[in-house]
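Hi V.,

You were right to ask for the full record rather than a summary. Here it is.
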Amino acid sequence: MARFRACVMQSAASGQGPSFKNVGAGNVLSYVFLLALSVGAIGEIFSDQTCLRIIEAAGFIGFAVTERRRLSIMARSLALLSVVMALTFVSLGRLSVGDILNMADRSAYMAYLLIAMSVLQAVATRSAMFQRAGEVLVRQTAGKRYLLTSLGAVAFGFLLNIGTIGLLGAMISTGRNLDAGSAKGTAEAKRKLRGILAVLRGFCFVPMWSPVSVAMVLVTIYMPSVSYGNVAQITAPLGLVLVLLGWGLDRLTPTDDPTADARPPALRQTVPALGVVLSVPVLAAGIALLFSVRFSSSVLVAAPMIAVAWAGLQMVHERQTAWHDLFKIGSGVAQNVLGLRSEIVIFSSATFIGGVLAQVVDMAAFLDAMNGLGLTGSVALVAFAWAAVGASVLGLSPIIGLSLLAGLLPQAEVLAISPVSMAVMLVFVWSTAICIAPYSASVRLSARVIGGNPWRVGLISNGLYGLLSMGLFSAICIWLD
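Predicted structure:
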């Protein structure tokens, strides 16, 4: 157990998670702006006030300006483009200030999604219970390991987000240091690759059932008539089929495992971790019923509450009662949030840009082009799915393509695509893109933890799985039509 925990800590120290550099007292202003943004976003869940949208916009702009030197190039570029587009279209009279504030509200909601879940992720990551559960999964026999590890990634991904890949991937990579040129060394390399593919595919199933995944939240923002339940009742079973598809492909690979455990640990040790995962939607359901809000929104309210309670239980269990212990945990959570500075700006800006483009694009020209190509109904749905996934493989950030389609397609009623079908397609596209695109963060991190190449992990080793997934989705769309 100590060996696995040490490996996880070493992987975090080697740069496989968010960067926490330059986090300290000098960033108090950044925390203030994030707090203002979060207060505005939470307030908008329960009410509809212009002042809250102004607070959200001010919080986001202030945070982006304060952190501008530490943002990635993409984050800075998208933030600047958002400001330029807003000023340009307002000055031209194409958009009103109210339109800009409405889109800023959507962007702030996306930012708060990352903030709320990163708080919960920070508490979960330091939990020995989750580390123990991860160890149990990756030490199962070869026949069970893929499916159980993949399902474990499905459950862990709800709380840990991309940290799931770092946690389980680090444990998978703790094999023997065998000669790469030897027969056993080759088998060990294959074991690591198969293990990380199980984690990656399971993690990419999370957006198809989680009410707080980026894709699920985005489609419900842009399509108010579509609820989480409408989408999840289709995407969750489809995602489970894809997990089983991955398991089937893995079973076709000959098994030669030099590190297999003769007596794997009992699976009942994972029950406490699963209980914590289930506590979030249970509390969220109560909040949704009590305040009559969307279930996906109530989860974002419940997540920080559970994080605080969980951190308190951790302190009691570890007999930490001093103020400096509380400050240490709070500091770790704050660092985890600020470590996602670029992701917060990228996702928020991309959501804003998609909303602006959806308002100003020439819909008549767009629809004429679709009619000229003969794209309507299920054919259009399949074409958009293949185009979006292909663009992500070529380097387009999935969040940009998803935001553009989410803002554009609901206005194209002539395409004869129902809002639920659009939402299902967008969620599926997001899940597939982050699973096979070499430039996606999930694929790059998966390759890094096993010392591999993103192109090999994403396309060469996972390409057949991606093609079969896309083919299955296409067949289902055409059959239903």
